[in-house]
Write a structure and sequence with these properties.
Blueprint: E1 10-11, E2 18-21, E3 36-39, E4 49-50, H1 68-95, H2 111-145, H3 150-177, H4 188-199, H5 209-217
């Protein structure tokens, strides 16, 4: 929340002070139940607040060295990668028994299906490996120094954005290759499509981050407060 002194703080308060609003009617990720909520009249002591990017960790453990936004971005990316993997698995299962209209071969026997599936799989798994590599490097740094520098934070964010975009590309490919089968509400691929495109709308993996990350790669000044 935005405080009277102009600072942005995360606040902890009793669950009884919270009113949830039934607003989560979305195109995808419906099962998360990410409802809006409001708090009216709660008294929050300063000791129960945290200023992101400014407050020091209260525990001396490696995980505490990870910036909140980097962790959140990696979490969104992980969900996206899982959706992408599920979409490709669904395509493979469908392709074995589906024979497209006017075709004498199954979907699995189509050269185009084979090529696009291979490309999507390579891109998705590469994105996953890239993200895990950056997280492993950050974890090693947190263990060694107890802090994570801006360059490492930026690397996590770039890998997270890339993972989300790669998952979208893989899911889009699976949905398209499945043809008319994927348009029915009973088909898992349409849900994968809606869910993965919902993840791209999250601020932590927004495409506009490429500008900030690109500036850092070029050695230019950039606002790194939200990394």
């Amino acid at each position: 929340m935005r405080c009277d002194d102009g600072t942005f703080r995360l606040c902890w308060f009793a669950a009884a002070d919270v009113t949830f609003h039934d607003t989560w009617y979305t195109s995808g990720l419906r099962g998360t139940g990410s409802l809006d909520f409001s708090v009216d009249g709660a008294v929050v002591p300063l000791a129960r607040t945290v200023q992101p990017g400014v407050s020091r960790p209260t525990m001396d453990i490696p995980l505490a060295a990870f910036p909140n936004f980097a962790l959140l971005a990696a979490g969104i990316a992980a969900v996206s990668l899982g959706i992408g993997r599920h979409a490709l698995d669904e395509l493979v299962a469908l392709a074995e028994g589906k024979r497209p209209l006017f075709s004498s071969r199954s979907l699995a026997e189509s050269p185009f299906t084979q090529i696009e599936l291979a490309r999507a799989t390579a891109r998705l798994r590469s994105a996953r490996a890239y993200l895990l590599d950056e997280l492993a490097a950050a974890w090693a740094l947190a263990n060694e120094r107890g802090r994570i520098d801006v360059a490492t934070r930026a690397a996590i964010r770039l890998a997270s954005v890339n993972a989300t975009e790669s998952a979208v590309a893989a899911t889009d490919a699976a949905y398209t290759l499945a043809g008319g089968s994927s348009v029915y509400s009973s088909n898992v691929l349409q849900r994968c499509l809606r869910d993965v495109h919902m993840t791209t709308q999250h601020l932590m993996v927004a495409p506009k981050l490429h500008e900030t990350l690109g500036r850092l790669l070029l050695g230019l000044e950039a606002n790194t407060q939200n990394l």
